[in-house]
Amino acid sequence: MDPPVEFPYPISGTLMADPVIVPPGRTIKRTCIQACDALAFYPPGVADLPSSPLVLIPNIALRSAILNW
């Protein structure tokens, strides 16, 4: 059975073990956005992140749904 479409991370295709929300409200895999931040390169749709420290909000609802699946 394939996972629901919102569970895998679109870039890697793997399930998001630690999804976080970044401005402007997009959910991203924590390890991916941290690596992108270190390289100052952001995935499409989050290129407008501020230059201040990156704020990552855990997406608890999505993480719980993935764990329950």
UniProtKB/TrEMBL annotation:
GO biological process: protein ubiquitination
Classification via Pfam families: U-box
InterPro entries per the UniProt record, alphabetical: Ubox_domain, Znf_RING/FYVE/PHD
Family matches, as SMART domains: Ubox
Keyword annotations from UniProtKB, A to Z: Transferase
PANTHER family, per the entry: U BOX DOMAIN-CONTAINING, U-BOX DOMAIN-CONTAINING PROTEIN 40
Protein name: U-box domain-containing protein
